Amino acid sequence: MMEESLRDKITVLEEIVKENETQKKILESTKEFDGNGFDEAISRKGELIRRVENLNGGFESLYERVKKELEGNKDKYRDKIKVFQDLIREITDLSNSIEAGEKRNKALAQSYFSSSKGQINQSRKSSQAALDYYLTMNKSKITPPQFYDTKN
Fold it and tell me: Which of 87, 94, 12, 19 is nearest to 53 (CA)?
């Protein structure tokens, strides 16, 4: 059961890595920002993280039950312990990869949102300038032409 729990955790962590890649593609996209896709990826990752937490809790409680047996008979369970160690190493590698992906995505998101904020500010300034021009022109007393061509 412990081995199965570790393998399930690896599978879930691999799915989180895929979601990180999905987020990266959305944030790096030169097309229009896919807000719905980004939100969906975050939502899926949240669910996957809850699954990892459940697997962690189940593994820890199971380990507490068999801990004395494993420690007391290391020679007997040497092969299983080696398998557990290898799986835990793989989990650690995946966790490090996820953490690096999260940092990268955070930087990309900050860059994107900073750029978007600048574009919004620029649009706001342009709109304000156009409004100011319109108001100024409506308030001014433009003198109509003084000479008219009276030829018909």
Answer: 12
End-to-end CA distance of the chain: 102
Q: How far is CA 99 from CA 93, 110, 111, 131, in A?
A: 10, 17, 18, 47
**Token pair in block for residue 112:** 């994107």
Which 8-state DSSP code applies to residue 71?
Answer: H
Q: 84-139, pLDDT tens digit by residue? A: 889 999 999 999 999 999 999 888 888 877 777 767 777 777 777 776 666 666 66
Structure token pair of residue 58: 């189940």
C-alpha pair distances (Å), 83 with each of 54, 89, 97, 144: 21, 10, 21, 93
Cβ within 8 Å of residue 3, ≥6 positions away:
80, 83, 84, 87
